[in-house]
């Protein structure tokens, strides 16, 4: 690939035999996208993540009895994927995976399984069986969604010492120390959120001093201060919705702009990306931008911050937006790509 082309991987909802993990090329100048490769990874590989070297891609797959993580070698020039190996993830229904900056460990959150796991990676990126599976406990107030724990993501902190796990079922964000010599996860605390909020994903500011947490059930974003001990303290909370909107909505993804000046969140129902500006550590709403489709379960900000790509699951497309560097506001580029039920988009490291 030339320097003006970026490569991304896309995870989807799909049947076991369908082509379900895709690579796409994104033109840095125009935002146009084109297909590169696709593989059948198994049922619903809804989340994917790259090894920090960019040589390997991992997909969390929802096999029936226990989740599986499958790995693929990535051709950095063509985007071609070659299956390598896989391992059981430690619980049912994996919904999120991430790799630490050292490339030594892979972490998985299991929504229905109520657990998080840690899997060692070999020097060549191969996956070992889980070295740690931590089962969450508890519930909260929503009778439909919060009768049991539901870890929805697991994100490594900026210096890779701590792992952060929003649990939608218990209204908590758990904090774990990553013990690399064991290897294991040691819980050091949690922050309690408003009952019925349903924490889902979080994203850190560039300096790592602040985390922004999107809450699925009450459509809010919570700003959290992060201490030197890794623990989080709630600072403020703001709605993702305009006051006049009264229909059903569920939030999904959150991301901080590379400048640290803007925060974006997706609304499913209202079907928008909400833009916030960061003002003295709190958030002020800049505006709402329709995603050009339905049910934006995920979106990806380009590594240079120039564009945002919304994955509209129910209308089977990825839609590109320009980002105004001065305000953070979004505008349609006119570019889109047809992908069946896209729900995750991740950039190949070093492809910008």
Topology, element by element:
Blueprint (H helix, E strand, L loop, with lengths): L4 E8 L8 E7 L5 E7 L7 E4 L5 E6 L6 E7 L6 E8 L5 E6 L5 E6 L4 E6 L11 E4 L19 E2 L5 E6 L4 E8 L4 E9 L6 E6 L5 E6 L4 E7 L5 E8 L10 E7 L5 E7 L3 E8 L2 E9 L5 E6 L5 E6 L4 E7 L6 E9 L3 E6 L5
Antiparallel strand pairs: 1-2, 1-28, 2-3, 4-5, 5-6, 6-7, 8-9, 9-10, 10-11, 12-13, 13-14, 14-15, 16-17, 17-18, 18-19, 20-21, 21-22, 22-23, 24-25, 25-26, 26-27
Describe the fold and architecture.
By secondary structure, this protein is an all-beta fold. It is 0% helix and 53% strand. It contains no helices and 28 strands. It has a four-stranded antiparallel β-sheet with strand order 3-2-1-28, with no helix packed on it. Strands 4-5-6-7 form a four-stranded antiparallel β-sheet, with no helix packed on it. Strands 8-9-10-11 form a four-stranded antiparallel β-sheet, with no helix packed on it. The chain is globular and about 50 Å long. The relative contact order is 0.13. The model has no long low-confidence stretch (mean pLDDT 97).
Shape: globular
Question: Runs with pLDDT <50, length 5+?
Answer: none
Output the strand order for the largest sheet.
Answer: 3-2-1-28
Question: What value does the average pLDDT take?
Answer: 97
Largest sheet: 4 strands, antiparallel
Number of helices: 0
Oligomer: single chain
Give the helices and strands as they follow along the chain.
EEEEEEEEEEEEEEEEEEEEEEEEEEEE
Q: How many β strands by DSSP? A: 28
Radius of gyration based on Cα positions: 19 Å
Strand content: over 45%
Which structural class best describes the helix and strand composition? mainly beta
Distance between the termini: 11 Å
> What's the helical proportion of residues?
under 10%
